[in-house]
Structure formats: structure tokens, C-alpha cells
Amino acid sequence: MSSFDIKRVWYYFTRYIDNFLLAGIFLLMLTGLIVLYSATGGNPGRVISQMINMVIALLVMWVVANVSLQRIMRLALPIYVLGMILLVAVALFGEVQNGARRWLNLGFAHIQPSELLKIAVPLMIAWYFDKVQITLRWRDYVVAVIILLLPVLFIMRQPDLGTALLILISGFYVIFLAGLSWRVLAGLAVAVAVSLPLLWSFGMHDYQRKRVMTMFDPSQDALGAGYHTIQSSIAIGSGGISGKGWLKGTQSQLDFLPEPSTDFIFSVFSEEFGLIGNCLLLSLYLIVIGRCLIITARAPTRFTRLVAGSITLTFFTYVFVNMGMVSGILPVVGIPLPLVSYGGTSMVTILLGFGILMSIHTHPKLVKT
Amino acid sequence: MNDTVELRDHSREIRHFRIRLVMSAVIVVILFGILLGRFFYLQVMQAEHYTTLAEANRIAIQPLVPNRGLIFDRNGEILAQNYTAYTLEIIPDQVKDLESAIHELATVIEITPEDRRRFNKLKRESTRFKSLPIRSRLTDIEVARFAENQYRFPGMDIKAHPLRHYPQGELVSHVIGYIGRINDKDLEQLEADKRLKNYHGSTHIGRIGIEKSYENALHGQTGFEQVETDAVGRPVRTLSREAPVAGDDLTLSLDIGLQQAAIDAFGEYRGALIALDPSNGEILAFVSKPGFDPNLFVDGIDHANWRLLNESIDRPLNNRALRGVYPPGSTFKPFMALAGLELGKRSVRYGFSDPGYFSLPGSSHRFRDWKPGGHGWVDLHKSLVISCDTYYYTLAHDLGITNIHNFIGQFGFGKETGIDIPGEVSGLLPSPEWKKKRFNQNWLPGDTISVGIGQGFNLATPLQLAYATMLLANDGKAYRPHFVKQQVDHHKNLVEDDFVTEMFRLNLKPEYLDHIKRALVDVTRPGGTAARAGVNVAYTFAGKTGTSQVINIKQGERYNANRINERHRDHALFIAFAPAEDPKIVLTVLVENSGSGGSTAAPIARKVLDYFFLGKIPEPVEKAG
Predict the structure, then answer these.
(1) What is the mean pLDDT of residues A253-269?
(2) Most CB contacts within 10 A, which of A351, B203, B278, B512?
(3) How sure is the predictor about B183, in pLDDT bands with cuts at 50, 70 and 90?
(4) What is the rounded distance in angstroms from the CA atom of residue A280 to the CA atom of residue A24?
């Protein structure tokens, strides 16, 4: 094969990939693997299995990046409908694990349909807004809210408050970016403020209330729910400015941290690499998010703009909520640190989003009629 | 036209969108800033605090409890030792349903209701995280059976503990004492003494006897180990270690053979016996009969056994030798005689015709001699040999209470001897001041008369009698009575072997002492009150009998042992030393409720002395009448 041929293959292989974004993703993944090795107490098995997760997720990203925008748009409605059918199926036939009905047994695999909705909901709302063509009127927003709340309510009933909130937020980002008027936004803010006490009294399960309570005063339940927050804060704080060094974090190596390879992987990182490591990691996330914002800003159509914006801000939300909960300023909700935490599902979901962003960025711009 | 509107709308939409995007970007930066601030707070401002917490998390300081020192008798016979006992412990916090778990446990190894009660008591007194014993002294078979089934019992574990054992049991219980579990009161005391640090991890402390008085020597120095532990408290590795130093071993002056011979000599009787070496104050035998099994107390005595010991009419927990107070009776007479000679109220040659009673001038009350009709012509020598009461009634009257109090007080009556086990009582040597204070009554001349024969208000412990006898045998030289001869550390290096304390020396005239000693030798010879005990004796055996009244006999009544409740019969007393010319051993024998000193106490003394001098193990005596 001539060098020309290699170049051509390389070109076709990478034409829809955004190298800048990919580099950021790779760096975060690498960080994740390094911390994972430490968090698992030097277990190469977990690291290899995470690498496999990453390869699968990257493949998904590559495939999605190669899909044209029209096709993604055409898929928005069917995916959403499929997701809703599966949610109904979960409510009817789902398996109960740890007191929550989240999983569906398809015979050959167990799936958690709420994951699918994380992508489907913003796609669907953006698709609807795009369909409207003209300037959005208030009743379009009402339709969008219905599209959003339908799955959210189902997921809340499972109950899976964390996922429900994330989907709510990702849908909200679409509506916000679509230009919902400030007056309505202000009204919403008031409504949320009013409904929080109601949610507290009627809409939450005991364990959820406990989590919130614990956030405000972890020492109240130092050996129970607050234990995670306290131990995590100890890990981060004792890391100091320069950290204890890789594989040398006492909190993580001696099992004081809960879920050190998934939700609390950041406290492992923070203990071993200190404030300096935290700054570098935050910068890395900021660069990735910045790149995504640029892609969003350059997106050609209403659909792509809204989808790209929502994906970007949702990604940011993951990062913020995870770090916030691990460092004790947000309640403990089961949200992994994107691209770093161990786990295949979230990796695939995240990279699927980046795939869409790359597709938006690299496919020939369609001139809007 | 339509197109323009569309286009204008389009660019306006993009402009609006970009504004919102920029706002989002600003919010992103702000929120990241908040995170950064939080990290700064945790990792810079609070770094020290959290570092301390992390260290506290991971580093556990585990005390290393030293082995308690051993106790031996003078010939190396072991009196207190340690062995490893297996204890089944439960951490209540780690057991879901404690009741049913213990119920199930009882199907694997025996758990008595007593064990449960003790466990429940401990549980109430401690935190849920503390490991508490439910069964101690598991046999090897029980250990194996539990180990097989351990998977069924989370939160339960077998722990090896060093446990104290007293192989001689009852024989030396009143000397060695015992150790017991440390309680809150002990902790307070240790705290006050600034010794608490050395007791981290220690479970037991000396309660009575040698175990208590030599607690500091026996306990040893607690070591410490810094261990890194994981979240569930499993030790991961040792960071530093300061080894414990085992307690010192003690060798006592006690001779366990002599002790055994003494106990055997008592036969069925209760009582006390003290044998000491007058040349240095070392105690050779120390009997308080009945004794008790000190091993019962080591891990907390159970209720049934406690009741048995505490409510027994024989009062086995009462240390008669140390804490029992008895009127010294006629054993008081040699000291009175010496007082008479030293204070010039009597001469060796003085004698009088004994009518069998004494009356104070102007009183019709008769202080009667034990022998109706009297002993005929009585001088000092005879007064001791036949134990004439009348002689001492008159002598007491002539001396007066103050003289008696001051002179006899020099022999240690009414004072603690300073023996090296705790709990000694001081007895009572009466004086007018004492009576005024105690009863708010004036001293009556009649009070003095009873004191003269060791009755009345007089009270002495067998130990005090032994001490006073030592002074007599020693020509006035006083040594502190003590048990410990030698203290060595766990490498067998000598720590201390000079426990002999010469306390003082009374200035007594040798010829007076000589005279009294010769009289005491004649006590065990034909005609003396202890003649039967002195038959065929192979050494010069000096002694004095005594009878200690338990109840007062009314004027005009006669003491009739057969008519009196056994527990109200007189106690027999005997003090002795031998050989009289160069005493090697001093003895005090008290036999409760057995009558006169000559018939029961003196034969016991004889047997002990025979064992001491001749190595002959005496045959048990039959209980008299």
C-alpha cells in the first residue's frame, strides 16, 4: 500500500473526528486509568476491563460521528418513543434491585432504559423545536415541557431521582438555549423555590431526604449516610497542595472511601495528586467544555445548536455535581465523574454525546433554507 | 419579503442563542471557581485538620499488655502464675439479633445462664463496639468446635488472654490474694495516681493480698504498637513498636511446706496461725482458716459462689490473721510481767498467797482466777507457768492503766505492724482517753483489772501477737513483718532483695527477759499449762497459753463449754518461740471456739515446730471433745 493509500484511509477514518476534542477525551481517559489503578489497589484487571469499555465507547462515538445530521434528526422521534415504551415496560415488568425498579430483563441482556432517555430527551425537544421552524411561541414550550416531564416522572417513580434530575436538566438546557423568556425563567425559579418544601414532604423517599440532610451536616450520621461525605472530605483535605503521591493515598488504599473506583474516584485522585492535580483536572475539563461550546456556537441549525448546547452543559453538570458531592457541597447522588469513573454505561452515554458533537462539527454545513 | 423576515429572524435567533451560550459559559466558569474555592478550603486551609483525621483513621495505637510477674515461695514453689486462656468474645454491635445468636451459640458450646447474666451485665456497662467475653476458659475441644462453626457467628471470635492462676488455691489465698477485672473505681484511682497510661489494655489489677500491695512490681510496663489499619480495623502493618516489659517476679519468705503442715495441724478447726523468723521479720507461714479459692475471683466471681463464700458462717473471706481482733487473754501476761519488772512494781522474787480472786479496795466485786480456790504461793515465774490470773489482777492494779498502756504499747499492741499486705487493722490497747472518746465514760479502776489478763477492752490481731512475741523473743528488737524476700525482673536480674526493716530496739533488761523466757519454757514442761504439747520436745520450746473470751460470763456463773453454743465457745490462743535461747521461729496460734490454749492451740504449735525443726510432717489432730 502506498503512503498515499494510507493517507486516504486515515482521512476516511478520521474525517468526522474532531482531533482537539478527541485529545481532551484521551487525556481524561488516561487520567481515569491511572487513578483507577490506584483506586482498585493496583488491580490491572479492572484497568483492562475499563480500557475495553473505553474502546467500545470510542467505537460508538466514531460510528455516531460518521452518521449524518439528517439521520440523527430522523432518529430523534423513534428513539424517544422507544425509550418511553421501555420505561412503561420497566414500570410494568421491571426488576427490583436495591428497592428500585430500574432494570428490564430482555432475556439476553439487562438494560436500564433511563440511560437511553438521557440522549433521547434533548434530541426529541430539539427536534420538535426545529420542526416548528418559526419563532417559538409559548405553546411550543408547553409541548417541550410535556416531552420532558413524561419520562422524568416515570423515572422518578422507579425511583431514580438522580437520573430524573439529570434528564430534567438536559431538557431544560434545550429549552433555555432555545430562548425561553427571562420572565418565564424567573417564574420557574420562584416555582422551584416554592415547590422544594413540597417535594421534601411528599415527593421524596426517606433515603433521599437523609442524603440531603446529611449534606448539610455530615457529622449528624457519621457512621451511616454521612460517613461517605466525611471520609471523602478527609481524603481530599489530607491530600493538601501536592497530594500524597500516586498509590500512596491512605484513605483510598485502606478502604476508607466508598465506591473509590466509580462515584468517589475523584477523592482518590484528589488525595494522591492534591490541589495541583485538581487544578490540572479542572483545566482539562474546562478545555473540553470550551471546545464543545465552540462547536455549539458554530452549529448550523437550530436542532444542532440546541443538541450540542444541551450535551455540552449536561457534560459540565456531570462534572460539577460529581465533584461537588465528593467534596461535600452537594448531596450524595449516584453520578459518576465523566470519562474518569469506572463503568461502561456512562462511558458509552458520554461518548455517544461527543459523537453527536463531532458529527455536528465535521459534517458539511447545510445551508438553512 | 418573507425571506428577509426569515433571515432577520434567523440571525436574531443566532444572536440570542449566542448570548445564552456565553452566559452558560460564564456560569460554567463561576461554578468551576466555586469548586476550586472548595478545594482550596479543604486542601490548603483545612489541610492540617484533615491530615490529622486521616492519620487518626489509619493509625491505631495498640497497647501490648505485659505478662504479670510470678510469685514463688522461699523454695521456688510457684504460688501465682499465668497461662493462656481462650475466651469467646462478642462485639454486640456486629451481631444483628444478639438473643438468638447467643441461643444458637449455646448449641455449639455450653453457655450457662450465669455466663449470660455476666455478659448482659458487661453489655450494659460498655459501648456496643467493645468486644465482651461471654465464655472464658474454653477447653481445646470447645475452641475447635467453635472454630468449625465460626462462619455462623459473625461478630464473635475466640481471643487468647493470659489468665492468672493460683495453683495452691485455698492454701495461701489470704496471703497472695487475687487479681480482678479492672472496674470504674480502679480506673478513677489509676487516673488519680497518674498510672492510667500504663494500664491501657490491661484487664486485671491486684485486689487484695500480695497481688494488691505489690501491684506496681508485678504489673510490668505496658508496651505500645502503632499499627496501620484499614477501614474495618484490620491491621495492615506495624509502624512502630515499643515492647512491653514483663512484671517482676517475687519470691516470698513463705514456706509452703510449713504452711501446709500448719493447715493440716488445725484439722477441722478454724483459726489463724502466723510463723515468722524473729531475726528479720520474714513470715514463714500465714494461715487464716478456712481460706477460699482465689481462682474464682480472677474473672469475676459468679453470684452463686459469691453467696456461698460471703454468707458462710465460717466466713472464709475474713482474713483472721490480719484482720480478726480477739482479746489476747493470758498471752498478754508475759508483757504484763515485763512491765511489772521494768517499771519496778514487781521483783523476780516477789510472791504472794493466791486466794483465787482479787477485789479492789472497798469493793466486794471479785475478779476470779480461772482456778477456784487459787494457786497457793505464786511468784512471777509460777504466775506465767500456771497462768495465774490473780497475780496479774494485782499487778495491773499496781501499775495503773496509763503505765500499762505506755509500756505494752511499745510491743505494737493497738498499732498496725506495717506488714506488706493491705487491710491490716490496729486492734485496741485501751486507755482512759480512748474510753472517754469512744463511750464518753470515765475509766474505772475495775477496767484496769481485766486489762491485766488481756481481757476487757483489749483486742489484738494474731499478727500483732506474733509481732509482740517476736519482740520478746528478740530481746526487744523489732523487725517489720513481711512476706517478700526478693524481687527479680523478667531476665532474673535482681531488683531488690533487702526487704528487712529493723524498726526499733526496746531497751529491756536482759535478766528480766531471761527470767520471763525461762518461765515460758516451763509452760511447756510438766506443771505448765501447755505441758501436754511439750512432751518429748527436741528443742527448748517457749510458749504461753491464752483463752480469748467470746461471751462474757456473768458474775457468779461458771463457764461451761458444753452448755454454750459452739460458736460462742472461747478461742484458744498460744504464742511460742523456739529454741528459747536463740529463737529461729516465732509462732502465734489462734483456734476459734475450741476452749483453752493449752489443749488445742499449743499442740498445733508443737506440730508446726516439729515440722520446722525436724522436717516431720505431723499427723492430723483429732478434734477435741
Answers:
(1) 89
(2) A351
(3) confident
(4) 12
CATH class (in words) of the domain with range B256-291+320-614? alpha beta
Pull the grid cell for residue A145: 415541557
* Residue A39 CA from chain centroid, whole number: 21
What grid cell was written down for A231? 471520609
From first CA to last CA, the distance across chain A in angstroms is 43
Closest Cβ–Cβ partner in B10, B28, B51 for A368: B10
Closest of B520, B544, B548, B523 to residue B534, by C-alpha? B523
Q: What are the tens digits of pLDDT across the range B64-97?
A: 889 999 999 999 999 999 988 888 888 887 787 8
Give residue limits of the domains in chain A: 24-362
Q: Got the DSSP string for B463-487?
A: HHHHHHHHHHHTTTEEE--B-EEEE
Measured CA to CA, the distance from residue B337 to residue B348 in angstroms comes to: 10
Residue B621 has a pLDDT of 45
Distance of CA B469 to the CA centre of its chain: 24
In the residue annotation, B330 being an active-site residue is answered as yes
Average pLDDT, chain A: 88
Query: B40 to chain A: which residues are within 8 Å by CB?
Result: 275
| Reduced 3-state DSSP string for chain A | CCHHHHHHHHHHHHCCCCHHHHHHHHHHHHHHHHHHHHHCCCCHHHHHHHHHHHHHHHHHHHHHHHCCHHHHHHHHHHHHHHHHHHHHHHHHHCEEECCEEEEEECCCCEECHHHHHHHHHHHHHHHHHHHHCCCCCHHHHHHHHHHHHHHHHHHHHCCCHHHHHHHHHHHHHHHHHCCCCHHHHHHHHHHHHHHHHHHHHHHCCHHHHHHHHHHHCHHHHCCCHHHHHHHHHHHHHHHCCCCCCCCCCHHHHCCCCCCCCCCCHHHHHHHHHHHHHHHHHHHHHHHHHHHHHHHHHHCCCHHHHHHHHHHHHHHHHHHHHHHHHHCCCCCCCCCCCCCCCCCHHHHHHHHHHHHHHHHHHHCCCCCCC
Q: Is the confidence at residue A368, as pLDDT, over 70?
A: no
Contact A29/A338 with Cβ under 8 angstroms? no
Q: Taking the CA of residue A365 as centre, how many other CA atoms within 13 Å lie in the half-sphere pointing to its CB? A: 11
Q: Which residues of B touch A279 (CB under 8 A)?
A: 36, 39
CATH class of B57-77+189-252: alpha beta
Q: How close B68 comes to chain A (CA, Å)?
A: 35
The domain ranges of chain B are 57-77+189-252, 80-167, 256-291+320-614
Query: What proportion of chain A, given as a percentage, has pLDDT over 90?
Result: 53
User: Is pTM beyond 0.90 here?
Assistant: no
Contact at CB, B38 and A327, closer than 8 angstroms:
yes
Chain A contact probe: residue of B27, B28, B94, B226 with most A CBs at under 10 A:
B28
B444-460 exposure pattern, b = at least 16 Cβ within 10 A, e = fewer: eeebbbbbbbbbbbbbb
**Residue B283: beta bridge partners?**
B276
Closest-CA distance, B93 to chain A, in angstroms, reads 12
B400 and B455 Cβ atoms separated by less than 8 Å: no
Cis peptide leading into residue B327 (ω within 30°): no
Residue B358 CB partners (closer than 8 Å, separation 6+): B366, B367, B389, B390, B393, B394, B397, B449
- From chain A, the residues in CB contact with B10 under 8 A are 368
The DSSP bridge pattern shows strands B249-252 and B71-72 to be parallel
Kindly report the number of other CB atoms within 10 A of residue B60's CB atom: 14
